[in-house]
Design goal:
Helices cover 52% and strands 0% of the residues. It contains 12 helices and no strands. It comes from Streptomyces niveus.
Length: 307
Amino acid sequence: MTDESTRERAGESGDDGTGLPASIEAAWGLRERPTKGRKPGLSLARIVDTAVTVAATEGLPAVSMGRIAKKLGVSPMSLYRYVAAKDELYVLMQEAIIGDPPALPAPGTDWRTAMAEWAWEMRRICYENLWALRIPVSSPPATPRMVAWWEWGLVALEGTRLDWSEKLSVILMVNGHVRHEATLMADLAAAVEASGRSADAVLAGYGRTIQKLADPARFPSVAEMLAAGVLDVPEEPESPDYEFVFGLERMLDGIDLLVRERGGDSGVGRDRGTGGDRGTGAGRGTGGGRDGGVGGRGGEKGAKPVA
């Protein structure tokens, strides 16, 4: 009997001689749609949409050909006419949720504003689809929308005089920050929910635990930090964006040093003939802080970033 894992191996490459993975063929529309044995109303788009709904409501582990087939009222075998394997379905699900990027940065937009906008948009997508963070990264971006986001990032870095390898590294680094922060926050939120306590109670409990365990003679810096009240529950709630903004700001600061070393300018590339009505991301500030604000805890207790 052919099981799902066997079909996953069979879906590693297309059947029409392109040499591309079946998922990439499907994403780019290079695979012919089945005509023989088609179920009325069944389509690749419906299958992918249903899979996304299952993942969003029940979690990624719930996504299976059997579960999707049941939701659609068809047999699991009928899905294989459209999708060769679950791994292929994962690729198509990611392509569906990422959506198209915003309009390319307007000519004259500085690279920092543009890259901050890129990061905020990618973060929004991550937070709206936290289940997708559980899909392992198995290959570089190769689907249409993924490549479009890649193009957007490269356009943002035009004029910096960074070479292509450095531009790619910048995009990967910023994307890594977005993905890591979203994954960490999702994991912490899940842990807080599982504990049955509030986030403030969990933070306060953690602070007390470390204070009991960390001998000041052995961990003097940790003891000094605890004495400063860094792990105390703040009188005013901090912005949930603080850690993201702080990390993004410092990352962009470092990239800026490299751009200056290269003698690059701050404007985004050449005029691509689309006029000046494209989004610039100015509402989030040139350094990634919303409305131009960065803020931060620093040494000031109660200081908050602008949300």
